[in-house]
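May I ask for a protein sequence together with how it folds?
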Amino acid sequence: MRIGIDFDNTIACYDGVFHAAALERCLIPTDLGRDKNSVRDHLNGSGRKDDFTELQGYVYGARMDLVSPYPGFAEFIGAARQAGHDLFIVSHKTRHPILGPKHDMHAAARGFLSDRGLMGSGPDQIAPERVFFELTKDDKVARAHALSCEVFIDDLPEILAMSGFPDGTRKILFDPEGQFASRATPYERRVSWAEIAADFARDRA
């Protein structure tokens, strides 16, 4: 089975990272909530929207060392590869931040995957040539189509709703924070990589 996987907020978990980076740059009070939305709302609400935009570029470009993979993702790779599935990372992100230093965010994301042992030539890794960072959402979906992805896993329902996926693609909404728990969606909603891995283990059985 050919499985496409998003990167930001699907593989890469930013819990607490924006808070830590904002404190590092003296942008927020120490008692602010640790989630990304609290940081964003604080800066936007105080007329510092550009500060948040630049902070995003700083995190995605220079401070990926603060970021961790979601629990269970590495184990999912190993189990999926052992079961014979073909794995692809297909994400969209601009190469350089809109504001601030021109970090190469594609290179930073690849560095994250390599540094954490998720990308490489080993049997429990995703090969570098199967990792794609596209510049737009449309290009991302077109890549999934070109790769003939039979499954696509993403944290954004608006991506899964886009036309252009191969006919019959199984779409899985990754929702570890339960944002969409009370909302009806046409997608399979899963809250962890362990749950996703269990799905594929059952399918194999």
